[in-house]
Specification:
two-stranded antiparallel sheet, mainly beta, globular
């Protein structure tokens, strides 16, 4: 199982996160340019943590990002990662010490941003490392899907091409009247939620 160990040095962070990247949205910059879920184990309060990268399925890559406080763009750590079964290394990423086992860094820069991108000349976008990595993925076949709840993107084995997993059908959310607490035969009152209302 791939693992990452993160040890925080002297700097403090307003945000520190690890995302399981499942897709991209090039219409936005910062964290929302990368679709996926955040690790529950890495945030700005940690001093040291080891995470087995199995919290969520279907990750194309993983992305570690921090925003320092006080804010200094050049001090913010960014690290994109991909699976690499036999790879192991320890590296310094700004003020973080990061040990990788079964994963390796992905080198990226703004070179993958096409000149005709509508936001290519916007400093807020162009200097955003999350957005740069989203373009790196786009240049390798990951589709650009706008919105907060996209389908999960996966790479087809051996082809380097992206495919979309079908999303399960979403049912309308239950109305408050459907969530009323029914009386059960044993005389106890309990609230029953329909299964699809649990997120």
């Amino acid at each position: 199982m791939p693992t990452i160990t993160v040890e925080v040095g002297e700097r403090r962070y307003r945000h520190l996160w690890l995302k399981y990247v499942t897709g991209i949205d090039l219409s936005r910059h910062c964290a929302v340019a990368l679709h996926g879920r955040y690790s529950r184990l890495i945030d700005e309060r940690i001093q040291q943590v080891t995470v087995e990268l199995d919290e969520f399925p279907h990750a194309l890559a993983w992305y570690l990002c921090g925003v320092t406080t006080p804010y200094r763009w050049e001090d913010n750590p960014h690290l994109a990662l991909t699976a690499a079964a036999s790879h192991s290394e320890t590296l310094s990423v700004q003020d973080l010490t990061v040990h990788l086992d079964g994963i390796r860094p992905i080198a990226f820069a703004d070179a993958d941003i096409p000149d005709d991108d509508p936001n290519a000349n916007s400093p807020a976008y162009r200097t955003c490392r999350n957005w740069q990595f989203a373009h790196y993925l786009r240049a390798r076949g990951v589709p650009d899907i706008h919105g907060d709840r996209p389908r999960v993107t996966v790479l087809r084995p051996g082809t380097g091409q992206a495919a979309l997993l079908p999303m399960p059908e979403r049912k309308p959310k239950a109305r408050q009247s459907e969530l009323a607490a029914p009386q059960d035969p044993g005389g106890k009152v309990g609230r029953q939620l329909p299964f699809d209302a649990i997120e």
